[in-house]
């Protein structure tokens, strides 16, 4: 206490003042700022927890109620669509160009669904967050037409044999999932809207509207879906959705949004 007052008033001898490493007095450096220490009595703790609990009950009820209204129906088609005679060698069947892989399935959804109805596909055990795979893209190339030649990180899907750049380059775009779906009810086709399934931020600041696909899937080994070369990347919403990283191995992506009541 004595020490403190003396330094406060600057009354230490002039000699030691020069060499002293003592910090200048302030309430902050002396840790004298006003403080409040809660006194946790059982009554206080119980009252606080009860009050917070009561605040969260309506929030919880609201979330529970709205999630209860969501009707979700799931249909797994990889096994259903494989007839027993080809199931023995499924890989050969999938790789073959001559087999017809169209699969028609009647699917009864018990509950009533209200528009908008969203359709997703889900891949299990697909490691879209694999270290080399996740880097195999070039964001500059996706965004600017002038950056077309930038194919760093895209190896081995970066250039054609004639050294032309591939747009969009990289394994992610190359491996784009391309199963297609058609939905009908009572033999009437559902009108399907494929617009606005991607995030607006991706469309407006990651995928350029002057960048068009080029030399895509034109090499020897075709990975997945092809892209329409007269549609800019910002409108290729399937690609944008595919490009979003998934940190879980059960990749779930939007395919369609059905805004039309059937
Ligand atoms: C494949 O089969 C479906 C019906 O199962 C048929 O509608 C379609 O035309 C067939 N496609 C080809 C290329 O034969
Ligand atoms: C999807 O890609 C594979 C490989 O290129 C191709 O064999 C298949 O016909 C494509 N499917 C559709 C529906 O385009
Ligand atoms: C590609 O897109 C253009 C413009 O939207 C369209 O007219 C054309 O039919 C599309 N081509 C294919 C093969 O889908
Ligand atoms: C995916 O992750 C990579 C690496 O973490 C990152 O560079 C890239 O921007 C991400 N892509 C998207 C669409 O979020």
TrEMBL record:
Protein name per the record: ALA-interacting subunit
Family statement: Belongs to the CDC50/LEM3 family.
Segments of skewed composition (Polar residues): 1-10
Keyword vocabulary terms for this entry: Membrane, Transmembrane, Transmembrane helix
Region: Disordered, residue numbers: 1-25
UniProt xrefs under InterPro entries: CDC50/LEM3_fam
Coiled-coil portions: none
Superkingdom of the source species: Eukaryota
Transmembrane segments: 44-66
Subcellular location, principal: membrane
Subcellular locations according to the entry: Membrane
Organism of this sequence: Medicago truncatula (Barrel medic)
GO cellular component, one term: membrane
